[in-house]
Amino acid sequence: MDGKKYDLEDRLIKFAVDMVKVSRKADWTDYASRYYQQQIIRSSGSVALNFGEFLGASSQKDKLNKLNIAHKEIKECRNNLLIQIGAELNDKTEL
Fold first, then answer.
1. Cα–Cα distance measured from residue 40 to residue 46, given in angstroms and rounded to the nearest whole number
2. Which of 20, 36, 41, 50 lies at 20 to 30 Å from 82 by C-alpha?
3. pLDDT at residue 58 in the model
4. pTM tops 0.85
5. Full 3-state SS string of the chain
6. Where are the domains of the chain?
7. Contact (CB, 8 A) for 16 and 45
8. What CATH fold (topology level) applies to the domain 8-86?
9. Which residues contact 16 (CB under 8 A, 6 or more apart)?
10. Residues 12-38: pLDDT tens digits?
11. Are 65 and 51 in contact (CB under 8 A)?
12. How far apart are CA 91 and CA 78, in angstroms?
């Protein structure tokens, strides 16, 4: 990461890393917790990866497609976290 305080790509990578770290602390023996932890790892990583592809895309069509995917995935992350908080699957302070 290059040190720009508000660089979106860096922030999305940090978000994905943070979700992995939080997921490691979850109760993986509980089915619901395991399900949502696995999904948050996939969707948060997808946001960062698709945004990175957006930055490198050559055509406007490809850029729009990658940005739309990243947008959908970040909405999925938000809903996932709200479900985890509502179902008390993780310590709210960790999320």
1. 10
2. 50
3. 96
4. yes
5. CCCCCCCHHHHHHHHHHHHHHHHHCCCCCCHHHHHHHHHHHHHHHHHHHHHHHHHHCCCHHHHHHHHHHHHHHHHHHHHHHHHHHHCCCCCCCCC
6. 8-86
7. yes
8. de novo design (two linked rop proteins) (1.20.1440)
9. 41, 44, 45, 47, 48
10. 999 999 999 999 999 999 999 999 999
11. no
12. 16
Residue 42 has pLDDT above 90, yes or no: yes
CB-based burial label for 63 (10 Å; 0-12, 13-18, 19+): middle
Q: Which residues of 11-43 are buried (b: 16+ CB within 10 A; e: fewer)?
A: ebbeebeebeebbeebeeeeeebeebbebbbeb
